[in-house]
Known about the structure:
This protein is mostly helical. It has 22 helices and two strands.
Amino acid sequence: MSKGVVYILIITVGVLIGSIGFILLKKQDLLYRLQLKLDKIKKVFLYFVEWILYLCVIYFFLNFLTIYYYQNIFSISSLIFLVVFISVFVLYFLILFDKNKSSINNLFVLFAIPVGLTFLFFVLPDFVPDEPSHFQRAYSVSNFNLTSSIHVMIDSDYAAKKLTNYSQILPSIYFTTGPVQLEQFHEACSYNFILYIFPALAINIGKLINLSLYGCYYLGRMANLILYIVFGYASIKITPKLKWMFFVFLFNPMLLHLAGSYSSDVIIDGVCVLSLAYFLYLYFDKETIDTKDIVIVISMIFIMLIAKYAFLPLFGIYFLVIPKLIKISKKQWAILVICICFGMSFYLLHTYLASFGETIPSQEVYYTSNNVNASEQINYLLSNPTNIVTMYARTFYQEIDYYFENFVSKLGWLEIDINAISYYLFYIILFFTICLEKVKLSIGNRIWFFILALIVAAIIVLGLYLYWAPVGWPVSAGVQGRYFVPCALLILTSISNGLATSFKYKREVIILSILIIDILALKDILVYFL
């Protein structure tokens, strides 16, 4: 019997035992009384218990995997603990599912915790695009260095891509006793410190309790995953339209494997999703704009300004709520001006801190060896107006298939291909969700959404053409599908329709689909690292 079959059988046994326990609870009418007691507990504590239970599942899975796969020893004790915790988790999960099955935002959290944590542990440290640079930046922020310096002192136990297989994870997480020896690294990215506050806070918690370097590393990853789940929960909860579209979009394997890493895309993509959801809320549900709405929207705009200004055209959707904006009170106008002034002050601080940044050595080598020069590239484009049109035409003609693929697949450092079922099923189910609800947007508004998507795409391609492609190169270089998150959101909204409004089993079909998509993608990740 192959080892893969053994893992599947063990998981199946645990799921069956937990499911049988749930059925017995339901038959004996204990489930209803239990749920009444759970209603008295805040949801955040219920999800915290789910988080801890699943961490136990992950721990005993890695423990069993290490012994069985790498040492060829079939440990009965590890097997028993693994089955027990899978059973307990499944039972608890089904109880919460039955309790929250009518709430899409609660279902999102319920599923995102186990799926996200599995991505977090299955993708080894530093195997997400640019994660070494992001981790070093987060570690620098944890040392209260808010400048954009590329130099950072880190525990000498760290090395980029040091962990290369699953047998190294658990031995790398422990409590330290002696003094920490530091070593200087020079690859920290120069993004604003605000993008790393949460993982930096988690790293500092790890330091306070004397966790090892990689114990702190995984805490930081968990902080980013929590942030991703919070953005997703808030977006699905607040939007009055396209809830299932947001739900499926957030279970994109590409976004999930970024969410379980140090990537700054967690906040960038989270703001993109929330900004569209908040617009739909203001446009469809609000008669008047409140002070809270002003603060939230302005905050999102300035976060995007310091994080990825190429995505700023996304906020052009808020032009459609101008008729409501002009009706706000004088006091609210004053608050709006104060928010803008505060935002501009923060942007000036960001600019000042960025002045301490340097080019990462590996990037400097790339620029020199490939003749990358932004000013010369601009001169090339302006030397003949057709050069710009030709560059865009060639780029999208040659790379469009890659962009679609890289939007979902090509995980890790563009090396982990996911299976065809996950790839195609994701696009099918995502398109299906925009057919479930008729969104009352005029043709003009839909065209405006499409134009904004094209503007964002054009800026992305042009920006990387200037700062990543060799001078005079026929196509843009370095563009990845995941950069088109705001474009995808805008286009999906612009073509939303009610063609499948009468479909009765949408919840069951969507949940089953995202489970198939992500479980098969996780299998591909597991196989890659074994």
